[in-house]
User: Fold these one by one.
Assistant:
Number 1:
Amino acid sequence: MKKLGVGLILIVFVAFLVVTYFVFFHASKCSEINCWEYKLKECKKAKYVNHDIDVSWEYEIKGKERDSCEVEVEALQVVTGLARSRIIEGKSMNCFIPLDNEGKTIVVAPEADINLCHGRLKEELQTLMIEKLHQYVLENVGEIAEGLTGVEGVVGGDEGNSSGNETDNV
């Protein structure tokens, strides 16, 4: 009789652990975009892999965090682009998408506004953006300088001297 009681308690305990796992820790996997968008709008735990043109992203909705929905974003693989872009592979960031008054999110790609995110992936994305901007400026410095001439306060235009004081040359 005692063995039956211990066995029953053990079964109930294991069942409790399984239920706890599925309620608090398990994230269902979405294979279709419609499933992902629904889960994101409702901020319900889920995972989704988006094989975009340039990068494969993995998303995992962690759940509601105060007035936002926490989504972990990982760059799985850079498919196209510069070799330098591969530094984002395997990096992740947590994004906090604001919830509306009904507790729902606006369905967007979490990486679309990295101001809502923090983590190593965000830092690497910002580094890549700065490097691309720097390269653009170097390649187009002549055009940029031409565009700035004639702008008040910028040296090199027809304004005369740089101080704006007519008596400097007297």
Note: The helical segments are 2-25, 33-42, 120-139, 141-148.
Number 2:
Amino acid sequence: MSMWKTLSALAGGAVAGPVAGKVVDAAITLLNNPQTGGLAGLVQTFRDKGLDDVVSSWIGTGENRAASAEEMHQALGENRIQQVAQSAGVTNHEASQGLAALLPQLIDMLTPDGKLPEGAGTQGGGAQTDGIAQALAAIRNKLMA
């Protein structure tokens, strides 16, 4: 099964049909958003909201801890969930469920060495931030192949 089909299947557990691909796109956009600090900013958001054990498992080399829709809502807040939902054309609950299925896998793919890439999402961008953007673009292209 291709990576796209795998991630779409994960998202498809929360949303049906072609909408699953839109949830994948929205999750990738969330990870690549320089306004929120990109990957590092997203990880810090989870840590700040008391979900360090969850997000650390996605970064580490061991098993990824499952996340719930409620934890997505707790970490990201109503506004970000609503933005993802509107972008994907789903309800807020479906967006939370889709992100709960996808973010652990995507963050795991972006941290194969068990740590955040140096400078990931730092203010001002730079080569590392560009590297994350390129990695996300490569993941998206593989998913769509």
Note: The domain at 3-144 is CATH 1.10.10.690 (Arc Repressor Mutant, subunit A).
Number 3:
Amino acid sequence: MFGNRGIFVYNNVRTLWVCLFFKDVSKTRTPEKGMVFNMTSKERAELKSQAMTMDSIFQIGKASLTPQMTQAIRDALHARELIKISVLKNCADDPKELARILAERTGSQVVQVIGKKIVLYKLNPEKEKKRREASK
């Protein structure tokens, strides 16, 4: 640790956890909130193939990103893990920049941005645990 601040990195096979500790310990980001997954190219390709058959469940328009939109996307990621978002023509923002901002705010990963379509993925630990139990 460096004074009251420090950065700790935990590397667990394919998962990189980054925990940032600030002056106030109560504001510490937990691994669940701050997890960053190093996605392999095979995993990314699989997610892209799954996303091809999906319909967009959100549309970002003239109002761009609002806090309500971000919260709705966060909830959808928790429920579905993989979502597709359309950026409408009347939105002045760059889709790649919107994808980066959304991934940062929701704790997800950008799978791909093609034209005005954004695909985001966020692993739901509860669903992963259920999948493991079902496979046993």
Note: The radius of gyration is 17 Å.
